[in-house]
Amino acid sequence: MRYGGNFRGLKVRVAEIFGCAGALIYSDPIDDGPLNKDNSSNPAESYPDGPWRSKSSAQRGSVQYLSLLAGDPLTPGYPATENATRIKAEDSPGLAKIPSLPLSWEDALPILKATQGLGVRGKEDWAGGLDEVHYFSGPTEGEAILVNHVENKITPIWNVIARIEGNEEPEKAIILGNHRDAWVYGAVDPSSGSASLMELARSTEWVEDNKEWLDKEAAVYINVDGAVSGPHFGAYASPSLNHILYEVTSKIHDPRTDKSVFDAWKANQKLTKTDQPQIGQLGSGSDFVAFLDHFPLDGEVW
User: Where are the residues of the annotated region Disordered (predicted)?
Assistant: First the structure.
């Protein structure tokens, strides 16, 4: 399976539902950006010959079924404190029942070659950017041996929590959240957000352990694990917050275009004067899940 389109955990869940013995998910080079090979200023080559990820790079990350159960999968709906009652791993709705592994596109290429001419041929957004193959659904008569060594253990984790008292409506809280662990080298996710926040960390366990305070004071959650990435502004949000995004970005200057962030945002999406910039819908797979799916609070991820 290719990365992209939806959260990797949902890909494994669908594979499990349809009776697959395991799941292999690879990163296609088209995921990094447009493959414009005729434009020397935007080469399609992989690092170190170009800007895109190395052909041997594998994208790792959790495949927990976050839309069903976020946080500690052994303490559903309550905080995973030291003496908490824990369910068995095989009884957790948040854990996959089949093994899975991430692959680089270099390692996925032999599997893709084995599907040539078999099944349905992918078109447009379903197809990737590898010249060596056409994208077919398969199945093949080949066999892949998947070995996945998993260490199951309970270990402590820590949150860094800070509070700044506001001058207006101090009884209400705007919560900023990020995670401390890096996604590979983490220049964008989460280090860009960490630099913006200076010092802040939060998890689902904290949400479960502070429901009363959140219910009383929390107004909005803003997710910033990827605060800075590239020259163009973009956002995902609860629909009820869209008008706030439009209003705020209209008041912020964009030094690159010398316009407002809102106008630069519209120009990048090539919209007419009457159209509003597109704001994505929140799904799962990041720190906002606990606030959006498991606690009644508007969420926003930038």
Answer: 34-57
CA distance linking residue 191 with residue 243, whole number of Å: 28
Q: How is residue 245 written in tokens?
A: 């995004």
Q: What angle do CA 250, 255, 257 make, to 5 degrees?
A: 80
Q: What stretch(es) of the chain map to CATH 3.40.630.10? A: 173-301
> Which residues, 6+ apart, have CB-to-CB distance to 227 below 8 Å?
192, 193, 195, 196, 197, 302
- Domain spanning 173-301: CATH superfamily: Zn peptidases (3.40.630.10)
Half-sphere exposure of 262 toward its Cβ, with a 13 Å CA cutoff?
Answer: 16
CATH 3.50.30.30 intervals, the chain: 1-153
What residue type is 278 in one-letter code? Answer: Q
Rounded to two decimals, the pTM is 0.63
- Fold designation for 1-153: Glucose Oxidase; domain 1 (3.50.30)
What are the Cα distances from residue 119, in Å, to 43, 126, 144, 163, 164? 32, 14, 18, 56, 57
Q: What digits encode the pLDDT tens for the residues 80-129?
A: 988 999 999 999 999 999 999 999 999 999 999 999 999 999 877 778 88
